[in-house]
Design goal:
- The chain has 214 residues and is α+β, with helices and mostly antiparallel strands.
- The protein has six helices and eight strands, in the order βααβαββββαββαα.
- It has a six-stranded mixed β-sheet, with helices on both faces. Strands 7-8 form a two-stranded antiparallel ribbon.
- Helix 4 crosses helix 5.
- The longest helix is centred in the N-terminal third of the chain and has 18 residues.
- The radius of gyration is 22 Å and the shape is elongated.
């Protein structure tokens, strides 16, 4: 063994608004924040449409390819092709769309036990929903993607790689190293390599997320 280092590998992080992850929170948002008399999933449809329109407008304005992944197609392989063509230091290089099963909020009718009147009630369920994959390259983190669900409340997932983060930091400091596909074979300053790996903090990850959603 010529090199041993402890480093975070791939990180798959949930990005969401906690208050919108349960039925009561969604009902409160629609009634108290949006001012609707009744909370219904029908009220989420305009929010979903506006989000999709915003993504499409961004793709057009930034000239980012917007594609639909084919069934069974490896998303990472497609993203890799676009990353390899990119000549800059950081950017979103591809937005891919794919249907995936995910939790959603629905409306069911309930009947008041005393008056007999029906009323809408928000419940959790699952459905096949479109997701947008924002695949990109970052000057500090290297390849990453941010996946957004198109349905309200538009939960997301951020995927980064700690090894790629350390590679970028070593390159910035001019420290020579031999890389593996997902790791390191050798490094001229292994102690510094370890220090950089230890420096991948929650603060740095939050900063990367803030840059992505800005």
């Amino acid at each position: 063994m010529t090199l041993e280092v402890e480093s975070i590998d791939r990180m798959y992080l949930n990005v969401y608004q906690p208050r919108l992850q349960h039925e009561g929170g969604v009902a409160s948002f629609l009634r108290l924040h949006r001012g609707h008399v009744f909370a219904s999933s029908a009220l989420m449809n305009p929010i979903t449409k506006a989000f999709i329109a915003g993504v499409e407008q961004y793709a057009q304005a930034a000239k980012v390819p917007l594609i639909t992944f084919a069934k069974g197609q490896r998303k990472e392989d497609v993203a890799l092709e676009y990353r390899q063509r990119f000549q800059g230091t950081e950017s979103i290089v591809l937005i891919g769309k794919a249907q995936e099963k995910t939790p959603v909020f629905r409306t069911e009718k309930r009947r008041h036990p005393q008056t007999g009147q029906t009323y809408p009630w928000i419940v959790r369920g699952t459905a096949m929903v479109n997701h947008f994959y924002f695949d990109g390259i970052d000057a500090d983190f290297g390849p990453f993607f941010l996946k957004f669900c198109t349905y309200f409340p538009n939960n997301a997932k951020l995927c980064i790689n700690g090894h790629e983060y350390v590679k970028r930091q070593l390159a910035k400091e001019g420290i020579a190293f031999e890389e593996l596909d997902n790791g390191f074979l050798s490094c001229d300053e292994p102690q510094r390599l370890q220090a950089l790996a230890d420096g991948l903090s929650a603060r740095r990850v939050r900063a990367r997320l803030a840059k992505a959603v800005a």
